[in-house]
């Protein structure tokens, strides 16, 4: 468990990891404060956006929609590898998920099969939407995959976590499939190597 990073700490951690960062105007104070707690934080969650196009995805993740107000993540990872920061603080990305999964993340152990949606994940996870339709055909360019690795490693390095603190939405909430197109074990191995 750890207190969340400040906006300055978050930005510095990403830049130290070599990430290309785009600061969307107002991101430092854009959050869901007043709609539940933010922290202690325990991990990083990766999503695919089920959209195409960077600008439209950034707008969607900033604004949200009628049923789910923004921000819908902390950063949008574009196909070119740029990380567009859209929020700092509580964000509507994880939703309810499996408390047993959270326990495994905290203990940095292998994740159990996801079964329930009994725990608020927006309290505990940094979230990143990666621009991809999630149809199994939309490609994942190397620059984008590198950026996902950098984001996850930057947060883990700051908090002293291992790669076991990086999960996919599909590992958290029943019925979710994201990210489609690469496995989380593959990503965790990349993060593990990067943290050496």
TrEMBL record:
What range does the record give for the signal peptide?
Answer: none
- Pfam families in UniProt: Amidase_2
- The superkingdom listed in its UniProt entry is Bacteria
Extract the SUPFAM superfamilies matched here. N-acetylmuramoyl-L-alanine amidase-like
Q: Show the Gene3D superfamilies listed in the entry.
A: Peptidoglycan recognition protein-like
The N-acetylmuramoyl-L-alanine amidase domain extends over: 27-180
Query: What CDD domains does the entry give?
Result: PGRP
UniProt name for this protein: Peptidoglycan-binding protein
**Species the sequence originates in:** Streptomyces hiroshimensis
